[in-house]
Design a protein that fits this description.
Layout (H helix, E strand, L loop, with lengths): L2 H12 L4 H13 L3 H14 L5 H12 L3 H18 L2 H15 L1
């Protein structure tokens, strides 16, 4: 296990619902190829906090890379809705571009 993962897990022990830490851990898992762990964390974040816009892109990309296109489209769409509701134009634009690259 990487040193970064160990540090994040240590911090999460005292702050288990910290979405920033959970997102960072998911990214580390993804980097190491632990895709099921990354997917589980991203999904948990978005289930607990649907307004955590940053995780939609990464979850959808992870699914897209596994040729799980329908699921990726679903998360891109949910992410665009969340970004729009949050007024986050940058995130909306990123999600929309990735969605259009996948669907057109």
């Amino acid at each position: 296990m990487s040193n970064r993962i160990e540090k994040i897990l240590t911090m999460l022990a005292s702050q288990p619902n910290d979405n920033f830490l959970r997102h960072a851990l998911a990214l580390e898992y993804k980097k190491l190829g632990h895709l099921a762990d990354a997917e589980a964390l991203f999904t948990a974040i978005l289930t607990d906090t649907p307004s955590y816009v940053g995780s939609y892109y990464h979850l959808a990309k992870l699914l897209e890379q596994q040729q799980r296109t329908d699921e990726a489209i679903h998360w891109y769409e949910k992410g665009m809705e969340a970004a729009k509701a949050a007024g986050d134009k940058h995130a909306y634009s990123e999600l929309q571009m990735a969605y259009e690259d996948l669907t057109y």
